[in-house]
């Protein structure tokens, strides 16, 4: 069963002086519970595609179905934000943690925008920090964590709303081999639990650990 379906998706960035077509009529079907790599040279449209799938940015044309929901181009922002918050967890290359908040507080952040809050948010966050091996680091702020630990906090944060889809844009790009391996193992564990995991990467070794690779070139799907 497809959890993500993109039909003829195009994205054109246009301003007064220029127009860039970052995605050209992309068609993609991704199975629920799969782990997919997105590869391609710089500027080929990988982040644009992730932003469209993650409902952070609207396509210029085409149709998106995420987890059974048809995301119309004219859907109000509020509805899109709510879908995003329920269904999608994000992990970024540069972690994007809030520097003044502890690991625990960072993990709790997305609940501010959540529709369904757990009864015991701290308990859930504590469990997630345990799952990524950081029970002993709850009170540390990002400056007091290693790169690999920061990324594991970011993964715990991505999980707080129990999303069905995890989108990771170069999650190991700033990490050494060992920490990158730890992050990949956690992502694989999430897949084993039934989540759909999509990873943008430049690293063939990471793509080799995924079931499928989508290769982009100049905004087209190459294979
Ligand atoms: N906001 C924007 N306005 C105009 N053009 C944009 C914008 N964002 C991206 N682009 C252009 O769209 C194309 C695709 O960019 P995108 O960021 O998706 O590439 P990428 O594959 O993620 O590259 P990288 O590997 O360097 O991260 C590029 O040509 C880029 O210059
Ligand atoms: Mg990018």
UniProtKB/TrEMBL annotation:
Residues 4-223 form the ABC transporter domain. One of its GO terms (molecular function) is ATP hydrolysis activity. Gene3D superfamilies: P-loop containing nucleotide triphosphate hydrolases. GO terms for cellular component: membrane protein complex. SUPFAM superfamilies: P-loop containing nucleoside triphosphate hydrolases. Keywords: ATP-binding, Nucleotide-binding, Transport. InterPro entries: AAA+_ATPase (IPR003593), ABC_transporter-like_ATP-bd (IPR003439), ABC_transporter-like_CS (IPR017871), MacB-like_ATP-bd (IPR017911), P-loop_NTPase (IPR027417). CDD domains: ABC_MJ0796_LolCDE_FtsE. Belongs to the ABC transporter superfamily. This is ABC transporter ATP-binding protein. It comes from candidate division WWE3 bacterium.
């Amino acid at each position: 069963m497809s959890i993500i379906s993109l039909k003829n998706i195009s994205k054109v960035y246009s301003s007064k002086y220029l127009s860039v077509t970052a995605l050209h009529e992309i068609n993609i079907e991704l199975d629920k519970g799969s782990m997919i790599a997105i590869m391609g040279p710089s500027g080929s449209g990988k982040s644009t595609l992730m932003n469209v799938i993650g409902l952070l940015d609207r396509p210029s044309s085409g149709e998106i179905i995420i987890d059974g929901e048809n995301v119309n181009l004219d859907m109000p922002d509020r509805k899109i934000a709510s879908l995003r918050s329920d269904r999608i967890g994000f992990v970024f290359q540069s972690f994007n943690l809030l520097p003044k908040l502890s690991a625990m507080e960072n993990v709790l952040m997305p609940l501010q925008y959540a529709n369904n809050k757990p009864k015991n948010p701290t308990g859930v966050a504590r469990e997630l920090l345990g799952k990524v091996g950081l029970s002993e680091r709850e009170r540390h702020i990002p400056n007091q964590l290693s790169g690999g630990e920061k990324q594991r906090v970011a993964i715990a944060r991505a999980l707080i709303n129990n999303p069905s889809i995890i989108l990771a844009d170069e999650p190991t790009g700033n990490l050494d081999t060992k920490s990158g391996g730890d992050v990949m193992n956690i992502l694989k564990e999430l897949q084993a639990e039934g989540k759909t995991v999509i990873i943008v990467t430049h690293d063939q070794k990471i793509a080799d650990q995924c079931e499928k690779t989508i290769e982009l070139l100049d905004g087209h799907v190459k294979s």
